[in-house]
Amino acid sequence: DYDRDVYSFEALTFPGGEPHVRVNPTMIQGRPMWVDARIGTAGGFVRLLCLLDAVRYCRPRSLGLFIPYFPGARQDRRESGSALTVEVYAACLRRLGLDCLAVFDPHSEVVAAVVDATIIPIEAIFKPSARDYSGVICPDAGTEKRVGKFVANTDIETIIHARKTRDVRTGKLSGFQCETLPFSRRYLVVDDICDGGGTFLGLANAIPPECRDYRLDLWVSHAIFSKGVDALLEKYDRIITTDSFPNAINPNGRITVHPLYYHAAALMKERLC
User: What is the model's pTM?
Assistant: First the structure.
């Protein structure tokens, strides 16, 4: 609930593969409740829908959902013959009549357009200063608005722009370019998602050879790391991220993971009281 008490539920899967849940109604009835959902698979999302439905019918005073990594957010364009996947997920959540829905740094503004969600920005979790970085590197054109908003909430003044080309049919990346780094110091690359890491490896390799004595750190809001982090750590001194995606990240001296739970709990207490 919004006082940060945690309630358990029973998860079952029927022989046909259908997920199912059971909750204790006496824990829920008349109380403001919220669900902290870290979703990494379509099956996990279906189980989440079952859980929200079960909780809603136990008559809580109010019901909120924190789903920091919004599934399908990268499939946000309607093309002939393709699904608008983000809308499919959003439609499932809209029918539940939630009192509060919160998302952390979604991939695009389409998420906010298809669901009535409170958007938690990067700077609410991570806010570096000019003492830390000479500038922020924007990895591609699609990230310019996100990086601009992020930098505007810091005292960092320099934004370095990079570019790449993606084949929309195959997903293959090519044509990496990066502006010259004006200072010999540390820079922060900022993006929302790291999946296989190809964007960030290509960017690091595209920094002009005349740049000397620079260091790179990487911020990604959602760490999928489908190909691990070893190759990234050959190019980046540090990786900074959150626990929005359910994977096995091991924080250490070079990987910092910011927890999102307490920020979400404060938000839900404010919205659901």
Answer: 0.91
